[in-house]
Design goal:
heterodimer, A: 516 residues, alpha/beta, Amidase signature (AS) enzymes, eleven-stranded mixed beta sheet, 17 helices, 11% strand, B: Arc Repressor Mutant, subunit A, 3 domains, nine-stranded mixed beta sheet, three-stranded antiparallel beta sheet, 16 helices, 39% helix, binds zinc ion
């Protein structure tokens, strides 16, 4: 897989590639114009400068990053091409396994555990020349929408540190927004990439289930989890997707066919594209007026760019949230059983094995994880399975069929990413249901296994970023990124985060906007 | 043995069989018994966070072989997770097949002519092995425990019979016949002592004529065919005694204590686990296509029942006598029946071929399986032509089994050079001429004098003469 080495025409016409974009950095490193070591040092310095305030990283892998950067510089000096992401710093969500580097899922129960292997996506990043600068914070085991459920403290939103960055990939989204890394990997089970991307004003993409390997992604809900990119532009996200996507024989649910490359599709435009504005994911109860306005403006922008936009109602989507909160916890209750104190991570001794298991899990898991294990255990219990788990699976089928009908009429769908913008730390932490509703617009695509991308599109009245979402049918990533790139160019400018790397602040702008 | 008078037992067996694949069910680790603890492990079979299973095609194929050998229907199937906490189990769930197993609705024909239905034969993964370390040697009081995960993820097939077995004897016969099929199909080595075949028995009793089933108990830890039949017998007796004493059998899982010869409670129904089965989301449904199934079916050799029939058929329309049924079962179970069939096909008396194989060759069955059938037949021909005595033939056979080679050479090396028919006649004639008085009495009807002449011939030939051949020569001289 290759990505464009030159800034695409769309960006050039919008005032040139953002100098800190991943592609521009890789391009410069590959041409020998910049040294990877220098790029990496710059980002490590930025992390050092602002991450104390933001808490994006659980581990900063400075030594490993410096070594890797030196190797890449040596490769370039020797006339070899280190790959499409040569020298690009990448932040990796701490639920992806990294050889010898602590991988915690932001949980006490895995504190101190160092995996003996790399997740496939981490290996692919390395092969592409990227440099991992650290592991990012998340809600414990990716369960949450604010990154407040981390056992190691919350991450703060770079646009307003009194607010959450969203979650569960809050560390990755905040790191990219603050310029601590041009790219990050997140994971999305019910919106965990797109929701924090929206709240932090960056691009977040959930790929089609099966296009990106889950090997080495510590499972939350196996049938819904998918690794995906966080970036400051659609083109960067597409470039990262192209690197991590592809069949992996170690993941049985990985699609055998090579997914279509996204990079070349970024500038394709939306001429003649049929866009459906999903009523249930836009005008639904609980969606802020500001968010609704931005989505309406996004629809207009697509129409102006040549798409035909119509409203579409998919009433079945109302059942997505309750179905999700049975299926995801059910799978999680099983996936998280292995944290029993026997083989790795935390162990709290007890009178016998069962007592040791119980004490370890009581001490090692936080309240949200325990809540979901209980929910899931209940949903799978004898006598309840049919009413809960099996019924939720039927709802899932109904939702897939409803999407299929919509995609007979539309090429892509448009929706809000989140009902509201970034909320304050502590605001929803004691109200799990309010927190769960943060994902009401993103969950349906996970249930369907489809791709979706969130793009920053202006702000609310308080100046906080708003994200809009493009949904596509399975393997529809190319058309999805083409539409997303049109929105990105049309978007009102987004403010520079209040807390950000000095380089980002002086560059004046994150990747989005600027075309006004 | 069968149930006490007026009672009948209803028995179903669950047999776990380790498949003889090179690697484990979901990873590339070696499937090997007896290695240093925790040397055949990787992130997948240790259930490390983030690892994922990939189904072994070889294991699926062996599971299909078992199913087809048991006349099952091979169907599209789904893996489920069986959730319960156990330190032997790295993920704290076992990947198994639940309501959509790969093999269903088969049967097993036993050597006694009965047929036992096979409900299902499904694929699952094995667990690791815990050893409790401490002074008492028992779980309670152990200082600590060590877990070996070499066995974790080894492919198993669980074969569940219908509850159609009625006695300990039949249960044992079923298990031994099943073991023969597992070995014959190439799916397993069937070694109960190494745990590669493990049997659990579900036992209930009811009064003859009752239609309703009694409450059943599951008996575990049956490590040999002998334990199986003893445990089932004991359990039948225990349950009958309870009911006859006015009590009720409680649904339990019971443990067979080999030393004390009784079953003891492991856990009651109330303590039974809720396994919370649900479809394993890390694996896709398994749907072997028809061509694959037919490929596997056509690659299966004849099963023990077919092979027993083939040996019996050598005896012609009347078949083998009951007395020979055990010999037939033995040669088939030991995988030596091809020697009998080859010899009989070359004109050897079936009775001789069967007897030598079931008695002598069977003594070292593993080596005998490697013997060249042509050489084996040649040896039996020498015996049948009376070039070797029975004693000599057995000695040569033992050599042939252990070292191989041509029987003629072995016989020569052992000094069993057979007397040519002509020279034997000369010796017999000489002995007769030397003892005219005895010869006259012999011809006059004193039959026991045959031994006198044979003894003299043997002495003169240093034991090389064949007794039957001497008798034949004597008869010839009598006219
Ligand atoms: Zn392994």
């Amino acid at each position: 897989m290759t990505v464009g080495l030159t800034p695409d025409r769309a960006e050039a016409s919008a005032g040139g590639a953002e100098p800190l974009s991943a592609r521009a950095l890789a391009d410069a490193v590959r041409r020998g114009e910049r040294r990877a070591s220098e790029v990496v040092e710059e980002h490590l310095a930025a992390i050092e400068a602002v991450d104390g305030e933001l808490g994006c990283f659980l581990t900063v892998t400075a030594d490993g990053a410096r070594r890797r950067a030196a190797e890449i510089d040596a490769e370039v000096a020797a006339g070899r091409d280190p790959g499409p992401l040569a020298g690009v710093p990448v932040a990796v969500k701490d639920n992806l396994c990294t050889t010898g580097v602590a991988t915690t899922c932001a949980s006490r129960i895995l504190e101190g555990w160092r995996p003996p292997y790399d997740a496939t996506v981490v290996a692919r990043l390395a092969e592409a020349g990227a440099v991992m600068v650290g592991k990012t914070n998340l809600d414990e085991f990716a369960m949450g929408s604010s990154t407040e459920n981390s056992a190691f403290g919350p991450t703060r939103n770079p646009h307003d540190p009194s607010r959450v960055p969203g979650g569960s990939s809050g560390g990755s989204a905040a790191a990219v927004a603050a310029g601590l890394a041009p790219l990050a990997l997140g994971s999305d089970t019910g919106g965990s990439i797109r929701q924090p991307a929206a709240l932090c004003g960056v691009v977040g993409m959930k790929p089609t289930y099966g296009t990106v390997s889950r090997y080495g992604l510590i499972a939350f809900a196996s049938s819904l989890d998918q690794v995906g990119p966080v970036a400051r532009s659609v083109a960067d996200a597409a470039a990262l997707f192209d690197v991590i996507a592809g069949h992996d024989p170690r993941d049985s649910t990985s699609l055998v066919d090579v997914p279509p490359a996204c990079g070349p599709a970024v500038g394709a435009g939306v001429q003649g594209l049929r866009v459906g504005l999903v009523t249930e994911l836009t005008d639904a109860q609980g969606v802020d007026a500001d968010v609704r306005s931005r989505v309406a403006e996004a629809a207009d922008a697509l129409a102006v760019a040549g798409a035909t936009v119509d409203s579409v109602s998919i009433p079945e989507l109302r059942f997505a949230l309750p179905a999700y909160y049975l299926l995801a916890p059910a799978e999680a209750s099983s996936n998280l059983s292995r944290y029993d104190g026997v083989r790795y991570g935390l162990r709290v001794d007890g009178d016998d094995v069962a007592d040791m298991n119980a004490r370890t899990r009581a001490a090692g898991f936080g309240p949200e994880v325990k809540r979901r294990i209980l929910l899931g255990t209940y949903a799978l219990s004898a006598g309840y399975y049919d009413a809960y788990y099996a019924q939720a699976q039927r709802v899932r089928t109904v939702i897939i069929q409803a999407f299929a009908r919509a995609y007979e009429r539309f090429d892509v769908l448009l929706a809000a990413t989140t009902p509201g913008t970034a909320f304050r730390l502590g605001e929803k932490i004691d109200d799990p249901l309010a927190m769960y509703l943060s994902d009401v617009c993103t969950i349906p695509t996970n249930l369907a296994g489809h791709p979706a991308i969130s793009v920053p599109f202006g702000t609310d009245s308080a100046g906080l970023p708003v994200g809009v979402q493009i949904l596509a049918p399975a393997l529809g990533e190319p058309v999805m990124v083409a539409a997303a790139a049109v929105l990105e160019r049309a978007a009102p400018s987004t403010p520079v985060p209040r807390v950000a790397a000095p380089t980002l602040a002086t560059a004046g702008m994150p990747a989005v906007g600027g075309a006004r | 043995m069968s149930a006490p008078a007026g009672w009948e037992a209803v028995i179903g067996l669950e047999v776990h069989c380790e498949l003889r694949t090179a690697t484990k069910l979901f990873c590339g680790c070696r499937n090997e018994f007896g290695a240093e603890p925790n040397t055949h492990v990787c992130p997948v079979c240790l259930g490390l966070p983030g690892s994922l299973p990939v189904l072994s095609t070889a294991a699926v194929e062996l599971a299909m072989r078992i199913g087809l050998a048991l006349h099952c229907e091979v169907r599209p199937s789904v893996f489920h997770r069986k959730n319960y906490f156990y330190p032997d189990m790295p993920k704290d769930y076992q990947v198994s097949q639940y309501d959509e197993p790969i093999n269903v609705a088969g049967y097993l024909d036993l050597p006694d002519g009965s047929r036992v239905g096979v409900e299902r034969a499904h694929i699952e993964e094995d667990t690791g092995k815990t050893s409790h370390v401490g002074d008492t040697g028992r779980i309670h009081g152990a200082g600590y425990a060590l877990v070996d995960y070499n066995r974790a993820g080894v492919p198993l097939v669980e074969i569940v019979s219908e509850p159609g077995i009625t006695s300990a004897t039949q249960a044992r016969l079923y298990a031994s016949e099943l073991r023969a099929i597992l070995v014959a199909s190439g799916a397993s080595d069937g070694r109960m002592e190494e745990g590669s075949m493990r049997v659990d028995a579900n036992v209930s009793v009811r009064r003859v004529g009752d239609l309703e089933l009694g409450t059943r108990c599951e008996v575990k830890n049956l490590n040999s065919l002998r334990s199986l039949s003893r445990a089932v017998d004991h359990e039948i007796g225990r349950q009958v005694a309870i009911v006859e004493g006015g009590g009720r059998v409680e649904q339990q899982t019971r443990h067979w204590d080999e030393d004390r010869g009784c079953t003891v409670t492991l856990r009651s129904k109330e303590e039974a686990y809720d396994y919370r089965y649900f479809p394993e989301p890390d694996l896709v449904p398994l749907a072997p296509d028809a061509a694959w199934v037919e490929d596997v079916r056509s690659s299966l050799g004849p099963m023990p029942a077919d092979r027993r029939r083939a040996v019996v058929a050598l005896f012609g329309a009347g078949g083998a006598s009951d007395a020979r049924a055990d010999q037939v079962a033995t040669v088939v179970e030991l995988g030596l029946d091809h020697l009998v069939v080859a010899a009989a096909g070359a004109g050897i008396e079936p009775a001789l071929a069967l007897a030598r194989t079931a008695n002598e060759a069977a003594a070292d069955a593993a080596a005998a399986r490697e013997v060249d059938p042509a050489a084996y037949t040649a040896l039996l021909q020498m015996e049948q032509r009376q070039e070797l005595s029975a004693t000599q033939a057995k000695a040569v056979l033992a050599e042939l089994v252990t070292g191989g080679g041509a029987p003629v050479e072995i016989a020569r090396r052992m000094g069993f050079e057979a007397l040519a028919a002509g020279s034997l006649a000369e010796v017999v004639a000489a002995v007769v001429a030397e003892h005219p008085g005895e010869w006259e009495r012999f011809c006059g009807g004193e039959a026991k004098l045959a031994g006198f002449f044979t003894g003299h011939v043997m002495r003169r030939t240093e034991g090389k003469a064949n007794g039957k051949a001497v008798a034949a020569e004597l008869a010839k001289l009598q006219g």
